[in-house]
Specification:
This protein is of the alpha/beta class. The chain has helices at residues 7-12, 20-34, 49-58, 73-78, 106-115, 141-144, 150-156, 170-173, 189-193, 196-200, 227-230, 236-241, 254-264, 279-292, 307-327, 344-347, 354-359, 361-380, 404-417, 430-438, 443-450, 456-472, 491-497; strands at 63-66, 87-91, 121-125, 130-134, 146-148, 166-168, 177-182, 204-206, 209-211, 217-223, 244-247, 274-276, 331-333, 422-425, 476-480, 485-490.
């Protein structure tokens, strides 16, 4: 259907003009009645953050999203244009997208006076009606609101108070749309003051000259709570004018985190290598982020972004892909030992406190990987603490009252106690990897019982997780050589062997 091209055609069509906030409200009402997802691609907020955003839009509020890094704040803000009308008319050539029924600028008024119903109209798509600005300390009033252009004033012989000499900033140019400011506290206080009238009175001043232009714009913000003390603050009058403050959060459950990581991570590479990620490996990756959010080495005020498990999964897949290219295998399964080569995805994603800095970023990252393995192991397998042998008692002499956990781990512990060593590596082909793990007595049965391993390759990774979990639970020792080979040994023999002749 063709859209009106002149002001007269627009009036004849029965078009009804409405404000941006009315658009958002009425289109949100229609979306709620229609059902379906309100913010496609955003997970974990359906019962927490999304209802608050809906309430803010229904209330015609300007609002701020307050949350730590990696909590989808920017994605939520960029989803708002879907609640605008798909097309709206504007006077052709007007820098502020003037509504033909409410001309704002001198140019728009001259056009209407000169051409009347023949005034040309162009249409704005909702995708062009959203603008955002990342707040940085060097942002100026001229960037956001505008400035006087002395050359234009001299050329046109106009007074500085004439609106025709203004070079408009990004906010006036977003008139009849949504303007977002990311990381609001990074704006200097004197710049934040310039936003006060725009939020409340919808007008602004430039260099002391009042400009009465009733802007029609919805302003939304994002901020990190850490910024309130570390880099800046939101001035009280501006905070008072932001009608709704909505707090975001990290995934509330591991399952939500796994779903987000699955959606966002780039795992379909198309290089001729099929990389399989078992379900328990996806849980392990998400658990690393969960452990980082609990770690005493990580600055919890800074947060641990959801980008950490995404980057970790991508590096994990890349290491498996590299193995497939080297060994010539067309199908590879990600392994626990691949995590050692993916450690860079963790070390660069966490802010460390003093103790963490002393330990070193790489050591902290490896410790977090170990904690993730241990957490998944404890959740899936019997209590490893009950399986540890009392001092002075051999594995081959179980007690009559031995708990179930000990009886399940005993064959494995006996095998290592009798001199067995399991050597695996991330560069081993699948056949060698399976063979190295299958020789450990009792390992295959225990892995199959508690982990969902669908084929031999998955089963081998499950067995590897058991060994690493037993190491993290202080049941086995582990050494990683310079050749990237991981060796699992009996804990007691390793301790005694390190003592030498003494």
């Amino acid at each position: 259907m063709s859209r009106p091209r002149t002001f007269g055609e627009l009036k004849a069509s029965g078009y009804r003009a409405r404000s941006v906030k009315d658009e958002l409200r009425e289109n949100m009402i229609a979306a709620l009645r229609a059902g379906g997802p309100l913010f496609p691609g955003v997970m974990g907020y359906e019962r927490t953050v999304e209802p608050q955003i809906v309430n803010a839009l229904l209330s015609r509020h300007d609002f701020i999203l307050l949350g730590l890094r990696g909590q989808a704040k920017t994605r939520l803000l960029r989803s708002l244009p879907r609640f605008l009308d798909e097309w709206v008319p504007a006077i052709d050539g007007c820098p502020l997208n003037s509504d033909p029924f409410h001309p704002l600028t001198h140019h728009a008024r001259v056009q209407l006076d000169a051409h009347g119903d023949a005034t040309p109209i162009h249409w704005l798509h909702r995708g062009t009606r959203y603008q955002e600005k990342l707040a940085t300390p060097d942002v100026t009033i001229a960037d956001l609101i505008g400035d006087i252009d002395p050359i234009k004033a001299a050329t046109l012989r106009l007074d500085y108070s004439d609106e025709r000499v203004i070079h408009y900033g990004i906010i006036p140019r977003t008139n009849r749309g949504i303007f977002a400011i990311n990381e609001l506290p990074d704006l200097q206080p004197r710049i934040q003051v310039g936003l006060l009238n725009i939020l409340e009175e919808k007008d602004f001043q430039i260099r002391g000259f009042p400009v009465r232009i009733p802007l029609d714009v919805a302003v939304v913000f994002s901020a990190n709570p850490e910024d309130y003390t570390n880099r800046g603050n939101i001035i009280t009058p501006l905070r008072d004018r932001i009608n709704s403050q909505i707090v975001t959060h990290y995934p509330l459950t591991r399952e939500e985190g796994v779903a987000i990581t699955r959606q966002e991570a780039w795992t379909e590479r198309g290089a001729g290598i099929e990389v399989v990620v078992p379900a328990f490996m996806r849980e392990l990756i998400e658990e690393v982020a969960i452990q980082a959010r609990k770690s005493e080495y990580v600055d919890q005020n800074s947060g641990v972004s959801a980008r950490l498990p995404i980057a970790l999964l991508e590096n994990l897949v890349s290491n498996a892909e590299r193995r497939g290219l080297v060994t010539g295998e067309s199908r590879v399964v990600t392994r626990v030992c691949d995590l050692q080569q993916a450690v860079s995805a963790v070390s660069g994603k966490v802010e460390l406190v003093l103790e963490g800095e002393q330990e070193g970023a790489v050591n902290v990252a490896r410790a977090l990987l170990g904690r993730g393995v241990k957490a998944v192991f404890q959740q899936r397998f019997p209590d490893a603490f009950k399986a540890r042998r009392p001092r002075g008692r051999s594995a081959s002499a179980p007690d009559e009252g031995e708990p179930q956990a000990a009886s399940e781990y005993r064959p494995i512990l006996e095998w290592f106690a009798n001199g067995g060593t399991a050597r695996i590596g991330d560069d081993m082909d699948s056949k060698s990897f399976v063979l190295a793990l299958s020789q450990v007595k009792g390992l295959a049965g225990l892995a199959a019982k508690y982990l969902d391993a669908r084929d031999p390759d998955d089963h081998a990774v499950a067995m590897e997780l058991v060994l690493e979990g037993m190491h993290q639970s202080s049941m086995l020792s582990r050494e990683r050589t310079d050749t990237a080979v991981t060796e699992y040994r009996d804990m007691l023999k390793s301790m005694l062997g390190g003592m030498g002749d003494d």
